[in-house]
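re: ur question from yesterday

yeah so i grabbed the chain u mentioned. its 259 aa long if i counted rite. heres the sequnce exactly as i have it in my notes:
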Amino acid sequence: MGKLSAIEWTDATFNPWWGCSRVSPACAHCYADTFAHRWGLELWAEGGARRFFGEKHWNEPRVWNRNAQAAGEPLKVFCASMADVFEDHSGLDVWREKLWDLVAETPWLHWQLLTKRPENVLAMSPWANEWPHNVWIGASIENSRFTFRADLLREVPCAVRFISAEPLLGSLFVEKRGRAPLDLAGISWLIVGGESGPRARPMELAWARELRSACADEGVAFFLKQLGGVRDKRGGQKARLDRRLWREFPYAPAVPVAA
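ran it thru and got these structure tokens back, copy pasting raw so excuse formatting
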């Protein structure tokens, strides 16, 4: 199958809706909000309007699933680049249920659900202790103030747990003012990226290097997406750390064989 997303660590992107609210410093220069503004949409107010889609949009993952099954190779699907599936918003409950039904219908898609709200995952997901093989849960952690999100992530009994340190705004190993260093126990994958764009906050290479070393020590797959900066050092040969591209992926559970 051809790649359906420009994001280097996934194969396709599916947004069940657009819109969210800001919860931490990583949200300050939200690219999704900026993109929505290009469409004249105001979708980033707490409890505010969200943009929803029709059945043609929702059928796309079903097509991807059939193609992946025909190819005999699962497809990674990032959900959602323009929202947070686990946002506490009264208007999203019915759409989350629709998403869970879609996940069940598409066993050849590895659903990568990334959130800044891991505290909501267990309450908002339908699987209790028997999670499907094709659901990955990730938590965004931008600095040492939010390393507690890894602790919450560890409580989720999903197939793959991952951390997105993007944009990386500080060391995740600083021990001060009650902040705990990042604990990678139970984590399968860590993605690192610097912020990009005209207001990009710098990422120090030392922060990325210490994450790379911690991943090597703990047997965690390490993926460097971009170095960031006003001149975006993304993909290709630009995202090199110590003269190497880092493009590691976690072990992904196989699709169960039907009886």
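noticed a couple things. The first strand starts at residue 12 and ends at 13. also The two ends are 26 Å apart (CA to CA).
anyway ttyl
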